[in-house]
């Protein structure tokens, strides 16, 4: 699929479907539709009927039953102009694209004249482009009888030549961010028999080669040399050996002192280990590398869009399996950071892999800020559902940047408290820490466990167990991985540019 900009004077109605975005007070006569009077009459009829009022979410396709373009008019309602948000635009464009993609239409035209002045034009175009890319995604590579996607081009039609620079900037950013999201979704959707720790490291390397960041992969022997004891305990039952994936991007070589560290949970499968999961909860556990997918996706966008920040990303990739070599509930294990941990539950494995990745990124990669992202707790689903990512942090200013980033991409976040009382819950009688804090406040205690290893660095912990997966096709999402975190982390790092 190609996204491109076209000047209205040189390009008239070549798309098979013409998108017409409307607000609730839009008058048809004010829309520069460049259509013949008979067609305009048809549209006016629908417009004046009860079917379409330009309300937010209203969507009406008008088939003109002819060979000439446009063959269809898609009316896209955006609601009240004064209530306009980029997110409404993203969702409504996505819904319209999905509807158009079901028709035989291969090309879409969208005139942006009534949108371009609502807020910064490059942001409008970025949002539209992102929506188009995300809405056309479907994970169907394992289906034998798949129909090829019909949509071939999306044309953004502009009026004034001086808009072109912003438009092309917006298209470029939107496509890159959409693709970052889609890469993350695909990695999550790949089943664990196809994507184990080694394959995940290969995908990271491919992404690095394509977009221009450096990737270093450590095998089991090197991980042992690094003394990543907690990570190795989780990994050791599986016949598929672990990999430590390190991705580096030097976006601000003048400022070597500031390095943003991203850590993604990379459990390519989580059976629970000896504290085995019920089989119904196990089915979706190929998605337990959603944090890794997010950081890999984010790195592609950070690099391609040349963000002016040094970033290093780390994934401790492994499988949590069962065998004679499994670590056990009751074991006391070590960690790269030196603290000992009493294992109460082998299903609380994510935090064990994450703490060693955090220690590694601080000690070996000299990260000055740490952001970890993980499908960490079922408890975050109880607390926030599938709508918002749960956040634990030790730094207000870093959380502010995350909130700004969240507003731009509409990946919602919510901060949880970190009172000292919660920290008491993860202290062990016989070791420094225990890996489970009890039945209550599970998302907080899991986050604070990781916080024990962040060495006072400004730190954010993002629990995406609720947001990384969706059970339904909706606006720009499709069943399976949502790619949560890829766009969010990009915008976060972008906020940290000086
Ligand atoms: N990967 C799971 C968390 C999860 C649950 C992700 C549901 C996506 C959907 C994690 O490793 C886990 O098993 N957490 C346990 C922790 C508990 C044993 C302290 C949980 O949430 O039950
Ligand atoms: Mn688990
Ligand atoms: Zn897990």
Helices, strands, pairings?
Elements: E1 2-7, E2 17-22, H1 37-48, E3 59-63, E4 72-77, H2 86-102, E5 107-111, H3 121-135, E6 153-158, H4 164-189, H5 197-211, E7 214-218, H6 220-225, H7 229-235, E8 243-250, E9 260-270, H8 279-282, H9 290-304, E10 310-320, E11 332-333, E12 341-342, H10 350-363, E13 369-374, H11 379-384, E14 389-393, H12 396-409, E15 413-415, H13 420-424, E16 433-434, H14 442-451, E17 459-463, E18 469-470, E19 480-481, H15 486-495
Parallel strand pairs: 1-6, 2-4, 2-5, 5-6, 9-10, 9-13, 12-16, 13-17, 14-15
Antiparallel strand pairs: 3-4, 7-8, 8-10, 11-12, 14-17, 18-19
Helix pairs in contact: 2-3, 3-4, 4-9, 5-9, 7-10, 9-15, 10-14, 12-15
Bound molecules: ligand BES, manganese (II) ion and zinc ion.
Manganese (II) ion (MN) is lined by residues 270, 272, 347, 349.
Textual characterization of the structure:
This protein is α/β, with parallel strands linked by helices and 498 residues long. Helices cover 35% and strands 20% of the residues. It has helices spanning 37-48, 86-102, 121-135, 164-189, 197-211, 220-225, 229-235, 279-282, 290-304, 350-363, 379-384, 396-409, 420-424, 442-451, 486-495, and strands at 2-7, 17-22, 59-63, 72-77, 107-111, 153-158, 214-218, 243-250, 260-270, 310-320, 332-333, 341-342, 369-374, 389-393, 413-415, 433-434, 459-463, 469-470, 480-481. The strands form four sheets. The chain has an eight-stranded mixed beta sheet, with helices on both faces. Helix 9 (290-304) packs across helix 15, helix 10 (350-363) runs parallel beside helix 14 and helix 12 packs across helix 15. The longest helix is centred in the middle third of the chain and has 26 residues, at 164-189. The chain is elongated. It binds ligand BES, manganese (II) ion and zinc ion. Zinc ion binds at residues 267, 270, 288, 349-350.
């Amino acid at each position: 699929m190609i996204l491109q900009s076209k000047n209205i004077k040189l390009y008239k109605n070549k798309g098979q479907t013409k998108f017409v975005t409307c607000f609730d007070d839009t008058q048809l006569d004010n829309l520069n539709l460049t259509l013949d009077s008979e067609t305009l009459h048809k549209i006016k009829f629908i417009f004046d009927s009860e079917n379409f009022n330009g309300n937010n979410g209203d969507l009406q396709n008008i088939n003109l039953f002819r060979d000439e373009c446009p063959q269809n008019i898609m009316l896209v309602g955006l609601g009240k102009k004064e209530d306009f948000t980029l997110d409404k635009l993203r969702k409504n464009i996505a819904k319209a694209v999905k509807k158009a993609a079901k028709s035989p239409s291969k090309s879409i035209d969208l005139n942006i004249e009534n949108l371009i002045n609502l807020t910064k034009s490059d942001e409008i175009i970025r949002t539209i482009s992102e929506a188009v890319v995300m809405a056309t995604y479907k994970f169907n590579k394992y289906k034998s009888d798949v129909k090829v996607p019909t949509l071939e081009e999306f044309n953004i039609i502009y009026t004034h030549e001086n808009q072109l620079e912003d438009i092309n900037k917006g298209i470029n950013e939107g496509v890159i961010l959409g693709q970052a999201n889609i890469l993350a979704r695909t990695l999550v959707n790949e089943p664990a028999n196809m994507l184990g720790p080694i394959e995940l490291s290969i995908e990271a390397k491919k992404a690095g080669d394509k977009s221009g960041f450096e990737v270093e992969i450590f095998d089991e022997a090197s991980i042992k040399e690094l003394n990543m004891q907690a990570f190795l305990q989780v990994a050791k039952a599986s016949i598929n050996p672990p990999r430590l994936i390190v991705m580096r991007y030097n976006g601000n070589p003048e400022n070597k002192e500031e390095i943003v560290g991203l850590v993604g949970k990379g459990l390519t499968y989580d059976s629970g280990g000896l504290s085995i999961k019920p089989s119904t909860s196990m089915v979706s556990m190929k998605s337990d590398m959603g944090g890794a997918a997010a950081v890999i996706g984010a790195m592609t966008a950070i690099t391609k869009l040349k963000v002016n920040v040094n970033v290093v990303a780390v994934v401790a990739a492994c499988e949590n399996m069962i065998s004679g070599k499994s670590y056990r509930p009751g074991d006391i294990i070590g960690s790269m950071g030196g603290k000992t941990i009493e294992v109460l539950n082998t299903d609380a494995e994510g935090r064990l892999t994450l703490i060693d990745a955090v220690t590694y990124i601080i000690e070996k990669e000299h990260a000055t800020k740490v952001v970890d992202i993980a499908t960490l707790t079922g408890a975050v689903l109880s607390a926030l559902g599938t709508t918002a990512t749960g956040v634990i942090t030790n730094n207000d200013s870093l959380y502010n940047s995350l909130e700004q980033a969240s507003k731009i991409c509409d990946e919602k976040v919510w901060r949880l408290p970190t009172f000292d009382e919660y920290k008491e819950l993860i202290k062990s009688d016989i070791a420094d820490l225990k890996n489970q804090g009890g039945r209550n406040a599970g998302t907080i205690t899991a986050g604070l466990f990781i916080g024990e290893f962040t060495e006072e660095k400004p730190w954010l912990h993002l629990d995406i167990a609720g947001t990384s997966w969706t059970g339904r096709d909706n606006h720009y999402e499709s069943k399976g991985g949502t790619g949560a975190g890829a766009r969010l982390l990009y915008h976060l790092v972008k906020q940290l540019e000086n």
